[in-house]
Design a protein that fits this description.
Layout (H helix, E strand, L loop, with lengths): L23 E6 L10 E6 L7 E11 L1 H8 L15 E9 L11 E5 L8 E5 L3 E3 L6 H5 L2 H14 L7 E4 L5 H12 L3 E6 L2 H9 L4 E4 L5 H8 L5 E6 L4 H7 L2 E9 L12 H6 L2 E4 L2 H7 L1 H16 L7 E5 L4 H10 L5 E5 L4
Parallel strand pairs: 8-9, 8-11, 9-10, 11-12, 12-13, 14-15
Antiparallel strand pairs: 1-2, 3-4, 3-6, 3-15, 4-5, 5-7
Length: 350
């Protein structure tokens, strides 16, 4: 369970009287999965803490394409309803269960889960929150966990990227793509970033990309090869899918690794003779299953990533902040995927 939701009122129910609001919190909720019109901002009863739990006053919530896909009921796994979107956030601990000794009231933390965080506070198991080291802004921390943990798991745990290898990042101006650019540079790789707009390519350059490619260029494969000195690439980080997957796989070197991270562009039809001819690997990256099956390793990865962020070596890009009242605009913008940088609900905005 990522959150606790009880006694939810019907959609459109009137706000509770002011004198009762101390026992309430606000969240964006739908009784059935579907388009943004199904969702309303409601006051809900604050659940009591159970053993092993903490309560966090949220400062910022990141909303991604996957969050919207899940909210619409179009993700590959369907969550239970009533449903609160939001899978990453940051805030301050305001209450802990007696059996939680290592987190204290006042600690700044990042919060992760599959859903339940598009709210002004949340109750989570202790292992779903991670203390934030100094030097990391809470708004940036809110959009750090999912993207950077995915990029690290893909490039380190799955592809085993080595210094000097070339990593081609598709969708380099998106959330995970931009994180992958930075992680690949930390690993000592030569990074080629492919993105669809000038703004997104500029963002990738700012994140450390050694070269950028227009994702819509007619001579895209030739441009990728030229950006790598006429040589094929070692690793492809692919959060796009569709036609981009085939072209990128054909750009791989012998024993290359192609990381399948997502497929908003559609599910590709890759000819199976290509992996054989190249001795190459098609590698799936399922970050949710990784967290479920290897929680200790996932937690260690996140702790290491936060240390790198604290040292200034990793940093997410925030495009815009919105108040929670503008949740419909936030979800629509995240669904489009056109922003160079992340969209954040900032609970300090009114």
């Amino acid at each position: 369970m990522t959150y606790k939701l009880s006694e939810v009122g019907a959609a459109g129910a009137s706000s509770p009287p002011k004198r009762e609001r101390q026992s309430m919190y606000r969240a964006v909720v739908a009784d059935e999965l579907g388009p943004v019109g199904h969702y309303t901002l409601r006051h809900l009863p604050r659940p009591q803490l159970e053993a092993g739990e903490v309560r966090v006053a949220l400062v910022a919530v990141g909303i991604s394409y996957v969050d919207v896909l899940t909210a619409e009921g179009n993700y590959q796994v369907k969550p239970p309803v009533p449903f609160i979107p939001g899978s990453e956030a940051a805030g301050v601990v305001i209450e802990t269960a007696p059996d939680v000794p290592d987190v204290s009231v006042g600690d700044r933390v990042v919060c992760g889960g599959w859903y339940g965080l598009l709210a002004d506070e949340c109750v989570l198991p202790r292992d779903a929150v991670t203390p934030i080291p100094p030097g990391i802004d809470l708004v940036e921390a809110a959009v750090f966990p999912a993207s950077f943990s995915t990029a690290w798991h893909a490039l380190v745990d799955r592809a085993h990227v080595r210094p000097g290898e070339t990593v081609l990042v598709l969708g380099a101006g998106g959330a995970t793509g931009y994180a992958a650019v930075q992680v690949a540079k930390v690993l000592g790789a030569h990074v080629i970033a492919s993105a669809s707009t000038h703004e997104k390519r500029a963002l990738a350059t700012g994140g450390g990309a050694d070269a950028t490619i227009d994702a819509r260029a007619a001579d895209w494969r030739d441009a990728v090869k030229a950006a790598n000195g006429g040589m094929p690439v070692d690793v492809v980080f692919d959060p796009i899918g569709g036609a981009a997957t085939d072209a990128a796989f054909r750009s791989l070197a012998w024993c290359g690794r192609h990381l399948i991270v997502g497929f908003p562009g559609g599910i590709a039809s890759l000819r199976t003779n290509l992996p054989l001819l190249k001795g190459a690997s098609l590698v799936g990256v399922n970050i949710r299953q990784f967290y479920l099956s290897q929680p200790d390793k996932a937690a260690a990865n996140m702790a290491h990533l936060l240390d790198l962020a604290s040292a200034g070596r990793l940093r997410p890009a925030v495009a815009r902040n919105y108040p929670i009242e503008d949740y419909a605009l936030v979800m629509a913008e995240a669904a489009k995927g056109e922003s160079a940088g992340r969209i954040v609900v900032n609970l300090n905005m009114r």
